[in-house]
């Protein structure tokens, strides 16, 4: 293929991504209160907490302030060795229960075991699993259950709004929302209905109790780092109905507090998201790095060394560069990321590529840890 043909193909590929991104402005719906029936089912809000002294107080306070008619909040202290237990002991509300986690059995990952214990203790007809680093608008639960009821779904997940503090977070974390906005045409994939085209976010997973029990709950995914993806696949396979909503303005989170924390978190999940398919993983990340960096470099060569790069190739490279910036602008504006991030978004791709390489090493060498617990090279996972 000639240089002009190659640049044209890159520009076409990025234009296709732009179509997906723009379609998601309509198809990827915001979490908003829906018109509902007069009654809502009893809800259990379930929070696993391990070494969450920085987050647990504010998280539980936001959950206790829900305007939902009948609910309980269950928090499981998963053998924390910081101040989590002390903070929980100081919280009091009629609808709040604090559980002490049982020892971790063989074959289970810590969070999955904690969620399994929480579900076993819950009394609600709907179960909301949410992380300790989330904060919830007072209407969030009512809005989510309203959609669950209105659309007769078995499962609903929410992509939280990311609160970004340090420069390290601003450089890496926007990749999460951008990849969802850019590569996943949610309305189309929901209509197709195939389990392989599902997606979910583990920070906010809302089940009908009947759907949770029907798919086997967390016992089904006890050793999986992809518990969210495996569970929504099981829901789709059972034809129980699912959706993913944009939680901007309703659910927020600060997942990481530094570049180091973000890099560790991404290292835990990136390779797993590709089901440990090394060839597919390598191709996607190398291609993404190439289409992000090659067009602006070629454009700079054309500007600095006239005659070395054909004008048509430079024109396509310019179109590709502009499309990449527009993709990031669309995502950052939607998810309330500072818009100056668009200017250094290529650095986000470069850094995430480096973390992706580390993610492979973590799994293949078995050196990864999370919450002070080791991650084996390939965690057990159930089939959808």
Question: Brief overview, please?
Answer:
This protein is an alpha/beta fold and 384 residues long.
Q: What would you say this structure looks like, in words?
A:
Mean pLDDT is 91; it is low at 379-384. This protein has a seven-stranded mixed sheet with strand order 3-2-1-4-8-6-9, sandwiched between helices. The chain has a three-stranded mixed sheet with strand order 5-10-7. A two-stranded antiparallel ribbon has the order 11-12. It has 14 helices and twelve strands. The chain is of the alpha/beta class. The relative contact order is 0.16.
The general outline is elongated
Share of helix, binned: 40-55%
Strand content: 5-15%
Give the radius of gyration: 22 Å
Average pLDDT for all residues: 91
What is the strand arrangement across the widest sheet?
3-2-1-4-8-6-9
Structural class: alpha/beta
Number of strands: 12
Q: How are helices and strands ordered from N to C?
A: HEHEHEHEEHEEHHHEHHEEHHHHEE
Work out the helix count.
14
Q: The biggest beta sheet, please?
A: 7 strands, mixed
Termini separation (Å)?
A: 40 Å
Low-confidence stretches: 379-384
